[in-house]
Every structure is written in structure tokens, then in C-alpha cells.
Specification:
about 725 residues; alpha/beta; GMP Synthetase, Chain A, domain 3; 4 domains; 7-stranded mixed sheet; 3-stranded mixed sheet; 31 helices; about 10% strand; disordered N terminus
């Protein structure tokens, strides 16, 4: 009888060629070939991830563990390793000779017997054996893992099948590591200080104990060799001993032991790194000197040549108002009838591979928002994004007892973390955001306000839009619109303003690659770029507009995402005035910050960008400057006093009158165009009444600007939850 010939193992060169054809990496495990470019040293911690008996029977070996991915070497390029570990894994090719030699080095010469009654190395089976989950729940988690990626343990936690602590205990047993109870841990300050805060935060570790030559740290993940080396170096060459802890408990411990440092970082990170980019000081020394010189010159001029001085000041201010109005009108009318945003089709959303979606951090600052918390959580629950890749953080001020109590009663799911923002100054939204960013896990981050209602697909749409936009786009600004636009006159005016801003002006700026002042919510950011810039400025009460300018100065770009978040328009006059005052004050703050070095700003923004900065962000000054013109023009027509003709001569008067008339007509048309662009057809007639609001806008602007000397960092909160039941 003729025997079937045994197919020989492929040679090293043949296996390397086959791996190349299949798009796999080929590695050499033989230390004698350590000089070859494809040599890889086996990580002992990684090798312990799969039991010896399984490795020998399946002819595989875990050789590295980096960034949450296990690298598994096998002489079979077609090996299916998905069932070997609950972590994401990739296969690399190696020769059978190298693998067998590696077995001998890692495990010893004789094969280990298969375990008899002990649980297998797989996490799901360990959890079932410990009665922390059922076999059916594990099977569901495995099916979800195949579709959406992630680890079996975290999938079970997010499904509510098991507790995070039980998973951490099982993983620690699986890796033959001790478990750390982070909830009960109380490390002393000297031990904590052995690892710098920034390194501890980056690696998510907390030192628990230390001796002359060792340090024991708690971590939520298995650390790589490079990370252990970094810890050893930072702690004075100590040997690193690892304990595994539950992730949320570890984060809470990290916040406790570094509470003072985190509070300081939230307040002063930007100012400490880039002091000239911070609004902590209203004016720089050079600006104070220049301002004092201008005041002295104006006083001297008014005393010696009052008519000439007044004419120069009024002429310059009138020219700026006319130029800014004309620029904004041209920009907005050029965007009429055009989408101007990055639209993502349903087909693109359906084509997204959920296994490759980035982790998304959602920061939601809350202050006195107990009344709307339930509706907010419903909107966040509706987000169509894998729960194990969501990192939602409710940022509540520590002394806001009512909102904290409401959040604690809400029984938050595992992907939602309640973060208590420590008391401190300035008490602003961007300070809360800066604090929340410190331990954010996401590769992308978005800000939502308490009353926001983003569409369920917005996060996925942002992922697809980022992939299409290119590496220089670091921010996507979604459109904003009020859900209560039909409630009253103030709400209708607010809706028309938002339509002009988010449907006309911002898309036009983005299309021309000009600096774009962000809206206060629904801005999606690349986390790495945001951290590089120093995050949000805690001292700027329009931190959104400021961040948009800083992004552009850094050579990055913002695009508009064609997805609309609904929010609440203020309908009470006091609430409306406070919000407008804060916007005006913050825009002037931003102007002053970025004009500290005018020549440097012009070089970074370019000529077109500088014009956009001056006339779009500087448009905040138009309501301030326009009020005197309205008053003087009215006096001219009604009384025409002689002194007025001296300080408001014909040329200046005609310029101001034409500017006022053109601005009025243009602004009316713009409000109507914004309403039509947004589809608010019922609000068109109310948009025609917009001039009635200009007095209120001017009063709010003056109120905000006058706060700058003494109350520059006062955050006048917009109250939410004032809408009627039919608006919900």
C-alpha cells in the first residue's frame, strides 16, 4: 500500500515569501539570529497569556503584548487564534524550528500535561467556573466580539452580565498575578510620589507599596516591557511588581491620590505651558502700556482738538463696523444654497467596521442640571456606538449636591462615569472640561451640554468624516439648532441667529480653510491634538471660539459636520441677556489674547485668515460700536445740533448712515436666508423683526464688555429645563 507523502515544513525563505504574499509579518525567534531585521525578542509576560499545553497543542506562542493587542507567532499563516485569548490578537509567521526552540526556552524541554480539573486559560470559562457569568452570556459576548471587537470581559461588564471586579479577579488569576482592591487601597504619599503624576496618568497605574529595590503598582492592564522599564527608571531603578485592579476603581484611586495635582492641572495646564495663549490675564503688560498710551492720546486730543479727535475716533469705528458687516454678509450670502459640511451617507455608516472604531470620550459639564439629567441620559443612551468603546463622563461640580444626588440615583451604566469636579477658581465650564480631559480614555472627544440632543449616529458620522477629511483636520463642528424654536419671539430670533452661524458663516469659513470660532457644544476633536494644544482655557468664557483660533494657529483645520444637535434656546429675557453678555465678553477676551502678538498672529493666520479673525470674531464689537452711531444718527436727524456736525462731519455721517442702512437691510436678508436655509419657514416673518432685538444685543454686549476689568472670569450660567412639555 502506497503511503501519502508527508508535506515538509516550508523553509524559512519560503515561509517569509508566503507571509509577504498574505500581508503578514514574518518574525525570527532564534536569538542566534538576533542581528537579522525581523528578529523579535519574546516578552515573558506575553508568553504567559496562553497556557503551555494550549501553545504546544495548537503550535502557537504569544510573543508580544502592546497597545492592547496580543501578537501570536505560528508556523501556520492561516492559523485561527480568535479563541485563544479574550484580547484582540494578530498572527505573525515564524518557522516551526524557531517555535519549538522558543517552547524549550519559555516552558522548558518537556511538554506540560494538560490541566485536569482547573478552569482553562480562557477568561470566559474562568468566569463561568466562578459563577460570575453564565455560559450563555459568554457565548453572546463572543458573538458580539466577532462583530464589534473588544475583550470578552469588558463586553460582559457592559452587558450587565458580570461585575468589573469579578472580571479583574479572573484576569489576574489567568495571568498568575495578584489582585489589587483599589477601592480599599490607601497608599502613603511617599510611595505615590515615586512615580510622577504624568507617568502614572499616562500608564494608569498607582504605586501601592515600595521597598529599597522594588515598587508594587496597581494597573488595569498588563504592562508592556517598555512600560515596566519606564516605571523602573522613574522610581529609581526599582523592580516593578504588578497587581491588577478593576479599571473604574483604579481610576477613582488615581483621582484620590493625585487630587491636588489634578485640580491644579485643570486650572493652570494651558497657562503653565503657553501663558500668552491664556486669558488668565485680561491684558498683557504690552497691551496695558499701549492702552494707556491710547487713552492719554485721546484725552489730550479731546482737550486740544476735540472735533478732530472725535472725527478720527468715530471715523475709524464707523469704518470697522461697515467693513465687518460687509465681510460677514459676503461670506454668508456666498454660502446660500450650499451644504458646506461633510455629509456622511447611510451607506458609509453601514460600511464602518465596528471592530476598528476608536474609543470615544463624551464630556458633559453639568452645573445645577438635575432637572434635565434624565432627558440627557436618554439622549446619551440613544447614541449608536459600541458601549465598550464609549467613555461618557458627567462632570459635576463637587458642591452641586442636587445634580450629584440625581446622578447617583440614576444607576449609571459602566460606560458612564460620574466625575466630581473639585471646587476652585475659575468656576467655569472649560475648567470642568480640562479636569474631565485628564483621565479621558478616548482617541476622539466630543463636548455636549446638559440639554443637548445629538442624533444617534453622530459619533459614527464623525468617525467616517475624520477618515475622509485628512490628517490636518483636528476638529469637526456639528451644526446646532434649538428644539424649541417655535415657542416664542426670543427663541425664534435665537433660531435664526443659529441658522446664520451654523448653516452659513461657519460652513463658508471651513470651505475657505479660514479660522473658525467653534460653537460651545458638539465639537468633535482628535484627543491627541487637543492635549498638544493644552486643552481648553479655563479662564476664557467662550473657550470654544478660543480653541478654534488656536487650532488654526497650530496649522490644523476645522470642518463642519453635516449633523445637527438640538439644544434649548433661552426664552426668558434675563437668561437670554446673561448668555449674550458672556458670549460678547468671551469674544473680546479671545480677541485680546490673540492680539498680544499681532505680527506673529498675522504670520500664522495669513492675510485671508487675519481678515476672517478680525471681522468674524471681531464682529462681537459691532453691537458695542453700533450703539453710539444709532444715538448720534438719531440726534442728527431729529435736532442736528451744531456741535454734532463738528464731531460727526458729513463724510463720517454718510459712511455711518450708509453702513447702518446697508447693515440693517443685509442683516434682515441674512436672518431670512438663515431661516430658509434651515427650513424654518414659519420663522421668516419673525426674522424680519430682528432689528427689534438689536437694542437688546447691544445692551448685552456692553454689559459683558464692562465686566472685563473686574469680573472677566465670571461664568454666567444659562439655565436649562425651562421649555414646555410639548417641546420635549
Amino acid at each position: 500500500m502506497q503511503q501519502t507523502p508527508i508535506v515538509p515544513e516550508p523553509s524559512r525563505a519560503a515561509l517569509r515569501r508566503l507571509a509577504l504574499q498574505l500581508g503578514l509579518e514574518f518574525v525570527t525567534l532564534d536569538p542566534a539570529r538576533g542581528g537579522e531585521p525581523d528578529y523579535v525578542e519574546i516578552g515573558p509576560l506575553a508568553a504567559s497569556l496562553i497556557p503551555e499545553a494550549v501553545c504546544r497543542s495548537r503550535r502557537v506562542l504569544a510573543i508580544a503584548y502592546r497597545d492592547g493587542v496580543v501578537t501570536i507567532a505560528s508556523p501556520d499563516p492561516f492559523a485561527d487564534v480568535r479563541d485563544l485569548t479574550d484580547r484582540p490578537a494578530r498572527v505573525v509567521a515564524t518557522t516551526a524550528e524557531d517555535l519549538e526552540a522558543a517552547f524549550a526556552r519559555v516552558f522548558g524541554g518537556a511538554p506540560a500535561p494538560a490541566p485536569a480539573a482547573a478552569p482553562s486559560g480562557r477568561l470566559g470559562e474562568r468566569l463561568v467556573a466562578a459563577r460570575a457569568a453564565t455560559g450563555e452570556q459568554v457565548a453572546v459576548a463572543l458573538a458580539l466580539q466577532a462583530r464589534a471587537g473588544g475583550r470578552v470581559g469588558e463586553l460582559l461588564v457592559h452587558a450587565g452580565a458580570t461585575a468589573e471586579r469579578d472580571v479583574a479577579v479572573a484576569v489576574a488569576e489567568q495571568l498568575d498575578l495578584p489582585f489589587a482592591d483599589a477601592d480599599a487601597a490607601q497608599p502613603d504619599a511617599e510611595t505615590v510620589a515615586l512615580v510622577p503624576e504624568r507617568l502614572a496618568r499616562a500608564l494608569r497605574v498607582v504605586p501601592l507599596a515600595a521597598g529599597p529595590g522594588w515598587i508594587e503598582v496597581a494597573a488595569a492592564e498588563l504592562l508592556s516591557e517598555a512600560q515596566r522599564d519606564e516605571l523602573a527608571s522613574a522610581s529609581g531603578g526599582r523592580d516593578v511588581r504588578l497587581r491588577l485592579a478593576a479599571p473604574r476603581a483604579l481610576e477613582a484611586l488615581l483621582r484620590r491620590v493625585h487630587a491636588a495635582e489634578h485640580a491644579t492641572l485643570a486650572r493652570s495646564e494651558l497657562f503653565g505651558r503657553f501663558p500668552d495663549e491664556s486669558a488668565a490675564r485680561v491684558l498683557s503688560p504690552a497691551q496695558r502700556h499701549a492702552g494707556a498710551a491710547l487713552v492719554v492720546a485721546a484725552v489730550v486730543g479731546l482737550l486740544t482738538e476735540p472735533a478732530t479727535t472725535a472725527t478720527i475716533v468715530l471715523g475709524a469705528a464707523s469704518s470697522f463696523v461697515v467693513a465687518a458687516t460687509a465681510y460677514r454678509l459676503a461670506l454668508a450670502f456666498g454660502a446660500l444654497g450650499r451644504g458646506g459640511g461633510l455629509a456622511v451617507s447611510p451607506a458609509e455608516l453601514a460600511a464602518l467596521d465596528e471592530r476598528r472604531l476608536p474609543t470615544y470620550t463624551v464630556l458633559v459639564p453639568l452645573l445645577r442640571e438635575a432637572a434635565v439629567l434624565g432627558r440627557l441620559l436618554a439622549a446619551l443612551t440613544a447614541l449608536d456606538y459600541p458601549r465598550h468603546r464609549l467613555d461618557i463622563r458627567l462632570l459635576v461640580e463637587a458642591d452641586d449636591a442636587e445634580t450629584l444626588a440625581a446622578a447617583q440615583r440614576a444607576d449609571l451604566p459602566p460606560h458612564v462615569t460620574l466625575v466630581e469636579v473639585p471646587p476652585g477658581a475659575p468656576r467655569t465650564k472649560p475648567r470642568a472640561l480640562a479636569y474631565g480631559l485628564l483621565l479621558a480614555r478616548g482617541e476622539r472627544v466630543v463636548v455636549y451640554d446638559a440639554e443637548d440632543r445629538p442624533p444617534p449616529d453622530q459619533l459614527k458620522a464623525a468617525v467616517a468624516a475624520f477618515a475622509r477629511a485628512g490628517a490636518r483636520v483636528a476638529c469637526l463642528q456639528a451644526r446646532l439648532a434649538p428644539f424649541n424654536a417655535e415657542r416664542g419671539l426670543l427663541e425664534r430670533w435665537f433660531a435664526a441667529d443659529y441658522a446664520v452661524q451654523f448653516d452659513l458663516l461657519l460652513p463658508a469659513l471651513a470651505a475657505r480653510r479660514l479660522p473658525l470660532p467653534l460653537g460651545g457644544t458638539s465639537n468633535h476633536l482628535v484627543t491627541e491634538r487637543l492635549v498638544e494644544l493644552g486643552g481648553w482655557d479655563p479662564y476664557n468664557v467662550t473657550e470654544d471660539a478660543d480653541l478654534g483660533i488656536r487650532l488654526h494657529k497650530a496649522g490644523l483645520r476645522t470642518a463642519v459636520l453635516d449633523s445637527t444637535t438640538l439644544e434649548e434656546a433661552p426664552g426668558e429675557l434675563g437668561n437670554w441677556m446673561r448668555q449674550r453678555s458672556r458670549w460678547s465678553k468671551g469674544h473680546v477676551q479671545t480677541l485680546l489674547v490673540h492680539l498680544r502678538h499681532p505680527a506673529r498672529l498675522a504670520r500664522r493666520l495669513g492675510a485671508r485668515g487675519s481678515l476672517a479673525f478680525a471681522f468674524v470674531l471681531g464682529g462681537a464689537l459691532v453691537p458695542v460700536l453700533a450703539a453710539p452711531f444709532w444715538l448720534l444718527t438719531t440726534l442728527w436727524f431729529l435736532a442736528g445740533p451744531g456741535w454734532l456736525r463738528d464731531v460727526f462731519p458729513g463724510a463720517v455721517f454718510h459712511l455711518a448712515a450708509v453702513g447702518a442702512l446697508a447693515g440693517t437691510v443685509g442683516a434682515l436678508l441674512l436672518a431670512v436666508a438663515g431661516a430658509l436655509q434651515r427650513g424654518l419657514f414659519g420663522s421668516v416673518r419673525h426674522a424680519l423683526l430682528a432689528p427689534l432685538a438689536w437694542g437688546l444685543v447691544s445692551a448685552a454686549a456692553w454689559r459683558g464688555v464692562l465686566q472685563l476689568p473686574a469680573r472677566a472670569h465670571l461664568w454666567e450660567k444659562t439655565e436649562h429645563g425651562r421649555d414646555r412639555p410639548e417641546d420635549t
